């Protein structure tokens, strides 16, 4: 409709965004970097609107780290604790120390980092048996005040501390799912915000709240922001979106693309 654009426009659709996301966008980004492909900017269609369509654009995200801690002791009878090595007190004290630790008070444009215990499993239905093993899962959402490797090192040090004086073992398996990023406000974010305001009739908040998305991988290629539908029902069994919002989203993307190629941001 507008003639030949001053540049090119590509659409990337991949899987494996949830969970560890080992494949999908991560592998595509690796391939694009290896091939020397140049990407100027990217918009991810994540459901960023909070309550009303167009009320929020994501310009950054916190990083994510998943960890599993396994404490192995020695099974035995509860009446003879000296013959056993109970892994549970070790794990409980360790989790309390980790969960009560203040990672930070926040970072520029970011909320404070938080550590959440997501799973504790012993698998011991007996009432008179000290279990041989206990495990726990946790997740850390962290702002740019931390690097994933530094948090892994902190967890490893705390696990080593918990192992002191214990006749069993404390092991850690930690995986960084993505580092935090922030796209600075400027020409690119202005174009997106104006497109949203023109269609939705409201000025969007430029936010870094919420979970993670494929933007955590695309940040290696170029400045990236996220804008999409209202996410009130995301991950619910009745996840849905009104047709009107899908039409409005189409209109926002159209305006954004037109404005971008009329005056590409630096």
How big is the Rg? 23 Å
Mean model confidence by pLDDT: 95
Helix and strand succession? HEEEEEHEEEHEEHEHEH
- Main sheet properties: 4 strands, antiparallel
Q: For the terminal residues, how far apart are their CA atoms?
A: 24 Å
Task: Tell how many strands the DSSP assignment holds.
Answer: 12
Amount of helix: 25-40%
Overall 3D shape: elongated
Sequence stretches where pLDDT stays below 50 over 5 or more residues: none
Number of helices: 6
- Name the structural class: alpha+beta
Strand order of the largest sheet: 6-8-4-9
Strand proportion, as a percent range, falls in 15-25%
Which structural traits does this protein have?
266 residues, alpha+beta, four-stranded antiparallel β-sheet, two-stranded parallel ribbon, 6 helices
Architecture blueprint of SSEs:
Elements: H1 25-35, E1 42-44, E2 56-58, E3 60-61, E4 63-72, E5 76-77, H2 87-99, E6 114-121, E7 129-130, E8 133-142, H3 148-163, E9 169-178, E10 181-182, H4 187-200, E11 205-207, H5 215-218, E12 224-226, H6 243-262
Parallel strand pairs: 1-12, 2-11
Antiparallel strand pairs: 3-10, 4-8, 4-9, 5-7, 6-8
Description:
It is a single chain. With 266 residues, the protein is of the alpha+beta class. The longest helix is centred in the last third of the chain and has 20 residues, at 243-262. It is elongated, with a radius of gyration of 23 Å. 29% of the residues lie in helices and 22% in strands. The two termini are 24 Å apart. The strands form 5 sheets. The protein has a 4-stranded antiparallel β-sheet, with helices on one face. The protein is built from 6 helices and 12 strands.
């Amino acid at each position: 409709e507008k003639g030949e654009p001053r540049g090119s426009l590509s659409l990337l659709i991949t899987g494996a965004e949830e969970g560890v996301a080992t494949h999908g966008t991560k592998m595509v980004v690796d391939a694009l970097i290896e091939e020397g492909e140049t990407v100027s900017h990217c918009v991810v269609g994540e459901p960023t609107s909070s309550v009303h369509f167009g009320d929020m654009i994501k310009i950054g995200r916190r990083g994510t780290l998943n960890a599993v801690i396994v404490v192995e002791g020695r099974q035995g009878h509860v009446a003879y604790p000296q013959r056993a090595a109970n892994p549970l007190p070790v794990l409980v004290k360790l989790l309390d120390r980790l969960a009560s630790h203040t990672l930070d008070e926040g970072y520029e444009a970011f909320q404070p980092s938080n550590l959440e215990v997501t799973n504790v499993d012993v698998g011991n239905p007996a009432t008179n048996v000290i279990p041989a093993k206990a495990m726990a899962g946790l997740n850390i959402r962290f702002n740019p005040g931390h690097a994933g490797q530094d948090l892994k090192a902190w967890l490893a040090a705390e696990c080593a501390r918990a192992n002191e004086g214990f006749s069993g073992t404390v092991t850690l398996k930690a995986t960084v799912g993505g580092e935090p990023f922030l796209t600075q406000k400027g020409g690119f974010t202005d174009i997106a915000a104006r497109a949203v305001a023109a269609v939705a009739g409201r000025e969007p908040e430029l936010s870094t709240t919420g979970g993670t998305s494929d933007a955590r991988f695309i940040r290696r290629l170029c400045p990236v922001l996220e804008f999409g539908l209202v996410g009130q029902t995301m991950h619910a069994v009745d996840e849905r979106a009104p047709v009107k919002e899908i039409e409005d989203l189409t209109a926002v993307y159209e305006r954004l693309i037109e404005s971008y190629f009329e005056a590409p941001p630096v």
